[in-house]
Amino acid sequence: MVTDNLTSLQTFILEEESRFPNASGEFSWIVSAISLAAKMIAYKVRHVRLQGGVGKEGDVNVQGEEQIKMDVIANEVIMRVLGSRSSIAVLGSEEDEQPTILRKGTDGGKYCVLFDPLDGSSNLDTAVGVGTIFTILRNDPNIPDAVRTVCQPGMQQVAAGYVLYGSSTVFVITTGHGVHMFELDMSVGSFLLVQRDLKMPRRNKVYSVNEAYSEGFPAGYQRYLKWAHEQGYSSRYIGSMVADIHRTLVNGGVFLYPPTKKHPGGKLRLLYEANPMSFLVEQAGGTSTDGGRRTMEIVPTEVHARTPLVMGSADEVAHVMNHLRG
Ligand code: AHM
Ligand code: MG
Q1: Is residue 20 over pLDDT 80?
Q2: CA distances (Å), 54 to each of 10, 47, 121, 161, 283, in order?
Q3: Is the shortest distance between the CB of 241 and ligand 1 below 6 Å?
């Protein structure tokens, strides 16, 4: 009996694009570049100590956070691989202060790509899963300023996804038609489809939050946690967003990064982390808010804007929201 055919990420994206008769194919080139960069980073992450990548780089990034060598290496890989794609007008990394304008006006470039090259990299020295997060936005050539070009609400994303470098390497993507998961087959060097149209469970009694900060959380979050304890919830927190969101997508539950004493406006970045993950979660049937508003409706005011985050299974997010309302 013939089961499902094997489908590579490349073939899958070409098929998706063929649904749009006027598609130029430029989009599939970008996804193929991201997958190439991901394979290179996956290899380097697997050998991070042998490559000398766990040491501190000595610099701090634009957020004032200390960079480790792999942050810089991953950033360079992505910039090199994506920088040569003619359809990208603006490329922005969480590690850099400003997005880079690659092409202007008549030079073309239909898209902007934003990425967090190696989220959770502080976990690399303990061999915990880390990830690359990306989002693809449409470029508006009439806006000459790169920051204003990329400051689009999440609703306008063309595609978003992440690569989790965990016990296996998985590539999860949405183009607005469901969420699809691929696994890296090292023997052929390709990401192969393992789950089409992934839907997250509507409920699962699991919350994922850095509970050690809870004294500094607004009262509503504290009420929610007390309620969740009484209801017999489990807690799972890796401290590496891609790994925590991947588990939440697959198993259900809720992921929270509330306002804290240290980060009163939330820690996670709206454009680089919250929006791409929100797009995926919504496409998988879940919801995402900043504790009040739908995350993807927030209009970013700056490229490194941060936001509190409550995302996950629809019913679980609703429980949090009920407690936040009082
Ligand atoms: P990074 O982009 O500097 O790696 O920081 C983001 C990470 C996320 O992966 C994770 O969800 C969060 O920071 C963990 O923060 P905390 O250690 O405060 O719980
Ligand atoms: Mg990050």
Answers
A1: no
A2: 32, 10, 9, 25, 35
A3: yes
